[in-house]
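Hi R.,

As promised, here are both runs. First protein below:
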Amino acid sequence: MIDPRPLITRIRTSASHIASSMLQAVSYTAPPSASDHPSFPVHWVSSRLALGPAPSTQRHFTAIKEQKISCILNLCAEMKELPALEEKAGFEVYFLPIEDEEAPELEQLDKALDWLDEQLFLGKHVYIHCRHGIGRTGTVLNAYLLRRGLGHKRAAKVLHKLRAEPTNFTQWRTVRKYGAQNAQLKIKTPTLEFGEDTAMSLEPFLTDYHHLQESIDDQLQLHQIDSLCGKLDNACCHTCVPLTLIESLALATHLNTSIPSAARADIIERAAEAVRHEKENAEGLSGTFCLYNTSICCPLLKDGTCLLYEYRPLRCRLFGITPELDSKIWEDILHSPLEHLSSQVYLTLTSTLPDHTTLMFTIPEVLSGKYVQRLFSFLKAAK
């Protein structure tokens, strides 16, 4: 005769789990260190990374926005309509569907964390959620902590303060595999994100670059040359303008700090369209392809004027001068400082020196934010 007691125990355990899930579905008890928002408190893991349960009302969407969150990493496989609703509410959404009590495939997890890294690098606030903000959310967060170099012990200390953590063997096994195999970015010191400390550490390099821009303006004045491209002339706005890493960082910084939000959104949209055209014109060939291969003008050009004229790149400043003077300025003044500053920025971000490959980006890539994706891809490939 079969002993029914083990089966009864399993049924009771399952019933208890179901009842607990039903209670959690209609109520959310915030962790002790959660934000104090009255409608939908989220838990801040760092200054720009938050987590919690899935939003279920328009009021929740509003509350999330009020906490400066603009991006969502959605893990709810069972709520397939939610990502579209989140996008409709104005969020940028990455959907990594994971079934309840399950864990993601390592390749898909790595892609999602690539996206997360990019958003945080761009200074955006990101919210990670599954249905209840516990098991799947904890699994993905744990993997991200390992990716950022915290290691298992330090990651466990962070998770201990949260309600989110892997809840079963499958999820813990995935975390262990990711800790052993993931393409972790080797950041200078273990940290959760590129936040204010990184911005402050890059400020000296940006200051040196701005001095370089001023020296070029002085050289043009010395030779009695009026550099008016982007003001009275826009011929260079239809040509290729490749940018080094320091130039890209400076241009992206001024886009975010000098342009109003509505105009900035319009520039980013035009830049994304230009990137698409650049890729189409590449036709499977290697190398960097710029606007001169397309019929698209620079996304910063509006009504014949550069929207960032004061901060326009060096090549734009030098456009139209004689080839002899252009070559002399690049060889004598610009080449070495740009290479040196870009290498220092690379070292600050990665704690490694770049190889002999010079990272170059196009203006549309920088303005659209796509340059960050290329930068992270380069870092991973260089490991």
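And here is the second one, sequence first, then its structure tokens:
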Amino acid sequence: MGDNTLLANGNGNTPLPRTSTETLQAATAPETSTISLTTPDTTIARDLGFLPIPRRLRYDPEHPAHFGLVINATFGFASTFVVANLYYCQPLLIEFSKSFGVTYDEVSRIPTLIQAGYAVGILLISTLGDLVRRRPLILLLVFISGALTIGLAITKSLVVFEALSFLVGMTSVVPQILMPLAADLAPPERRASALSIVLAGLLFGVLIARVLAGIIAEFVTWRAVYYFAIGVQYLVLLMMYLVLPDYPAKNKGATYFGILFSMAKFAVTEPVLIQAYLINLPSSACFTNFWVTLTFLLGDAPYHYSTLVIGLFGLVGIFGVAMAPFVGRLIDGLIPWFATVTAIMALLVFQAIAVGADGVNIAAVVIVCFGLDVFRQMAQVSLTTRVFSLDPNARARLNAVLLLSLFMGQVMGTSVGSQVFTKYGWRPAAALSVAWTGFMLFMILLRGPHVPRYTWLGYKGGIEVRKSRLARSGVDSAVAAVTAEPDAAPTSDEKKREASDPPNCGDVEKAQIREKDKIEVAENSE
């Protein structure tokens, strides 16, 4: 080829010379986001037909909004105080019983109903993120959940309270719309970091809701908890209105039932998704098993801690959540499969410590609390990153399927873990979590990091750990292809590739397209 390579110009007419230096720079250019958005015919100026969109937030395909720290932090804040709706009720059940004049059994239906509503919302509402514009959907859901919370604060009927709790759960799925949206908008090299911040906000909401509800109800009344929830939700609504850019729908022409059908299809045809599901389920069970049985451990001999002190152990989990940015940066540098393996092996170590923590020293319990929060978060972010790479236009559906494993794991961890603890004690219950974590390790090792998308078992393509080295090896191949002698006889594989190359495409573009495809295949295999 010599020192110059011919490239078509912008009009596809006169070839333009490119030096080998420019060729190398093009080969080493960073990957761009793979998200495919449908460009609307005209810029939409109003949400829901009447609410003006600030001009700087309107979608402009020529100048798309920058996904920076402000938007990412806003996503995290919104996740915290929307998901908190699901957990305010848990420390208030005794107060509900007194206020409504009913038994503990009757008020125990409230957390079940709100979680059931959340599950329905994930399946039927969060999947709309793959069908409609996300900005108006998010604003509408936050407004509705805030309005329903007004009813929770003022009603004097348990039946009405239960019905409203179910509906609040259904509309509190905004974090599960923000997760795929963050993955869509963040640059590929920051995707895990962006997801970790949103997930940290979600986990922080789970932890802080119980603390806030307990403190407010202790010094005021349980209804004040819901007045607080109303205020903070409309604060979230205002923040999202002022910060969230508008983006077009991702799947123009798709139907709602078609979206649901494709979600079911993903659940049985995608090896990566099924592997992640079977890892996430026992991971959630281990986490729930630990926190449920921890209450019994700390309340009995030799600790005899009060309910307040036991509740403060949730603050240890907050420190683990605070590690999210560091966890995300670590995952961004690794092939997600290896990040998952690292997290599972660390979880095995901390679960083993938990087995021996019974009555030994409270420091061991604190260490386990911290370690489980950090590495479970690492496992979930890396699994989510792998799953989201399967299809950028179906991330809401993929996320919904993955979340089902969390609910099933919580049920399994609560029921099985509690039964084992009450019959045999702390150590057998902790050993059960060790066994579940061992199953997670077995499942991740069944399928390697670089196998083709629809391969169910095995290893292929090496075991490179770092993304940078994988990309660099692709660049080396591209440079070799560009500088190859033109007289060399093509192999049969090269002939096949040549036949599949786009028409009117120069040698350099062909090499770059091939190597980009290789890198995308390697990442999609995650």
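A quick note on the second one: The longest helix spans residues 395-424. Let me know what you think.

Best,
J.
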